[in-house]
Amino acid sequence: MTTGRFFTATVAGGVTLFVVGFLLWGLLATDFYEAHVGTATGVTKEPMEWAYLVLGQLFWAALLAHVIGTWAKVSGFGPGLKIGLVFGILVSFAIGLTQYSMSNLMDLSGTLVDPLLTGVWAGLGGGVIGLVLGCCQSEPAG
User: What's this model's pTM, rounded to 2 decimal places?
Assistant: First the structure.
């Protein structure tokens, strides 16, 4: 995988993660998460800091691009989707359950549902990353 393809896949994946994240957490699941907050108060930032959200999405996309393109060495929407889905679910369960054990940010129901949404989110981002990595396969290595 060339550096240029890595950065292109990262940007495409980052945009996808941002849009899918907005649709999932910002629109579709807002009521669910509001019903499953923990007892912690004052943890939501108002207003949110958009620049850091964008950077976070780009770092997630870079991680997925590295896993998909360098470690798994696959390309295409389907393989990227599968890797992103599994990676998203596993990472989210690991972080969510650890966080649940030590904090009151979300109740157990929210903690157990969140990895499923994260899997969809990371799967779609991984699919786009895999698609971009599969473009122009005849490009010389660099």
Answer: 0.92
Give bridge partners of residue 140 from the DSSP assignment: none
Report how far Cα 92 is from the mean position of its chain's Cα atoms. Answer: 9
Mean pLDDT, the chain, whole residue set: 94
As beta bridge partners, residue 106 has 37
Predicted confidence (pLDDT) at residue 41 exceeds the cutoff of 50: yes
DSSP assignments along the chain, one per residue = --HHHHHHHHHHHHHHHHHHHIIIIIIISHHHHHHTB-S--S-S-SS--HHHHHHHHHHHHHHHHHIIIIIS---SHHHHHHHHHHHHHHHHHHHHHHHHHH--SB-HHHHHHHHHHHHHHHHHHHHHHHHHHHTTTTSPP-
- Identify the burial level of 41 via C-beta atoms within 10 angstroms of its C-beta, where 0-12 means exposed, 13-18 middle and 19 or more buried: exposed
